[in-house]
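TASK: fixed-backbone design
INPUT:
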């Protein structure tokens, strides 16, 4: 049996040492540190994968790896045809070749030139991230230039001393193990995953992503012969959408889903690309777009035709930013889409004082509903406050929250909700819930789960985070998927019941209030009343004594002993 723990420990140690190297070169807590660490990690991963497949191909051709690299008899072209989804390397690009040059003057430049060369190979064009402006961001950038000029060679030499020790294992036991690479990826980005107020900088915890994907797939009739289009409009580092793809494919997600994403953050888009490459989803890399989803949604069939040209999806997941200042684009968004049903409930007004309090997540909820096919399904992370937010204004007008909840109920799209424990996200104290939507829902049962009391508190750096135990994760999934009813934990309601409570989606408002009655004899009743009477008499007596003591103390106070 493979020793996952041993390899995971070695890889995490490599990441930690790269971070330590950056720290000693003055890059700690800078944007450059994240770029260096993630770029070197990705270069190492791709190199080891290239060399593993190269040796396998050479064995099949009954030649040596060196002969393939030398491109004798066009072996290398045959290799690229056999592994079209791998990043192309040449002999001079490999760790094995570069390590032989590490003592040469100018090794820092040699390494940067290599990264740049790999990025510019025509066959590697598909690994670049597209922006909504039509440009593409390269796979690698020059990284040693982030340190002082006189330190660059030593910096590159130290990088190679770290990445030449151990190798990634691409045998089937590892290459198809989503949980293994999810853990590695979380360790890679944990120090750089700080909420900065831009889209989807939050990393959705693995437990939450797993719960969402399992519940979402369970409510679906999956066709084993179909390839599903799945979408995340504020993808961040991709935890949600990759868990969904994995669940759809029952551990072999490449053959069940094509992923489409957009996110405004350059850092998040870079993380997402790494996450997808770690998990072998290179065929979907061309569908990653960096840009403003609300202003310029990228997934068009017909460019520039907002009424009819937008691609619709089978599944969608999203953990959007909850509040942020988007006042600079708010009016343009409203104007551009006023003739469509995309923002049917409205767009939050610009507040007079705190613009950062604009509830941008309300726009993303509407966008996801608009992006689904007529039988599409979605899971949306939102503030728990949305479940019970004001339904109508004092003047009787629907609020944005009220209009969204009303549409979900009136169209019978709401499958259910799960309210998560507080601090489940280490970067935000906001309590979160997940809304599950099924546009093809046939019954009128809605399951509401309140899991807010589950989990254990753990300290992570300066933050305290709530972590769900394995049995608690299973309980949430089983309760939701089987529509179980449990006192003070879950309830199954109908649309009419929800309408009667101003379209509230909070489980707690539907829990039955229970009063336990205990039978006692007449003598037990009299004894208990006598006990209460004696206790009250003592309290009254103590009160009178206390009042007398206070008065006496006041009388003894005079001007001379002030």
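OUTPUT:
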């Amino acid at each position: 049996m493979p020793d996952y723990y041993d390899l995971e420990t070695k890889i995490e140690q490599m990441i930690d040492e790269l971070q330590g190297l950056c720290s000693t070169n003055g890059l700690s807590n800078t944007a450059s540190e994240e770029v260096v660490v993630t770029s070197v990690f990705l270069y190492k991963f791709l190199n080891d994968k290239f060399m593993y497949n190269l040796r396998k191909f050479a064995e099949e051709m009954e030649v040596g790896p060196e002969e393939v690299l030398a491109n004798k008899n066009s072996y290398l072209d045959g290799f690229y045809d056999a592994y079209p989804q791998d990043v192309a390397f040449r002999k001079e690009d490999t760790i094995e070749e570069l390590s032989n040059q590490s003592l040469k003057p100018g090794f820092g430049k040699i390494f940067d030139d290599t990264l740049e060369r790999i990025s510019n190979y025509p066959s590697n064009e598909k690994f670049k991230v597209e922006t909504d402006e039509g440009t593409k961001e390269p796979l690698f950038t020059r990284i040693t230039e982030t340190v002082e000029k006189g330190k660059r060679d030593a910096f590159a030499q130290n990088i190679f001393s770290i990445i030449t020790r151990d190798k990634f294992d691409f045998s089937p036991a590892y290459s198809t193990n989503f949980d293994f690479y999810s853990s590695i990826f979380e360790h890679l980005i944990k120090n750089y995953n700080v909420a900065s107020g831009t889209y989807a900088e939050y990393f959705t915890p693995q437990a939450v992503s797993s719960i969402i994907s399992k519940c979402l797939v369970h409510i679906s009739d999956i066709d084993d012969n179909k390839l599903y289009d799945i979408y995340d409009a504020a993808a961040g580092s991709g935890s949600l959408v990759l868990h969904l793809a994995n669940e759809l494919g029952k551990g072999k997600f490449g053959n069940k889903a094509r992923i489409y994403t957009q996110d405004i953050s350059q850092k998040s888009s870079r993380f997402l690309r790494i996450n997808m490459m770690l998990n072998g989803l290179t065929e979907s890399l061309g569908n990653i777009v960096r840009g403003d989803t609300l202003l310029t949604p990228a997934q068009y069939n017909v460019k520039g035709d907002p009424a009819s040209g937008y691609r619709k999806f089978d599944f969608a997941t999203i953990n959007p930013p909850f509040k942020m200042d988007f006042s600079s684009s708010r009016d343009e968004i409203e104007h551009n889409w006023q003739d469509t049903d995309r923002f049917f409930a409205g767009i939050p007004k610009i507040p007079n004082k705190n613009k950062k309090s604009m509830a941008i997540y309300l726009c993303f909820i509407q966008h996801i509903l608009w992006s689904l096919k007529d039988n599409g399904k979605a899971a949306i992370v939102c503030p728990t406050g949305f479940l019970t937010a004001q339904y109508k204004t004092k003047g009787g007008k629907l609020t944005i929250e009220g209009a969204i909840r009303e549409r979900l109920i009136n169209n019978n799209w709401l499958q259910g909700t799960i309210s998560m424990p507080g601090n489940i996200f280490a970067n935000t104290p906001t309590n979160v819930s997940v809304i599950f939507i099924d546009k093809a829902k046939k019954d009128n049962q809605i399951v509401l789960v309140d899991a807010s009391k589950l989990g254990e508190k753990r300290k992570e750096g300066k933050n305290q985070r709530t972590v769900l135990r394995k049995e608690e994760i299973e309980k949430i999934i089983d309760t939701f998927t089987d529509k179980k009813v449990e006192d003070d934990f879950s309830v199954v309601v109908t649309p009419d019941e929800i309408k009667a409570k101003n379209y509230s989606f909070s489980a707690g408002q539907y829990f039955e209030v229970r009063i336990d009655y205990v039978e006692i004899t007449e003598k037990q009743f009299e004894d208990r009343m006598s006990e209460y009477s004696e206790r009250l008499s003592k309290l009254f007596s103590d009160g009178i004594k206390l009042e007398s003591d206070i008065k006496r103390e006041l009388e003894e106070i005079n001007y001379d002993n002030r």
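COMMENT: The mean pLDDT is 88.
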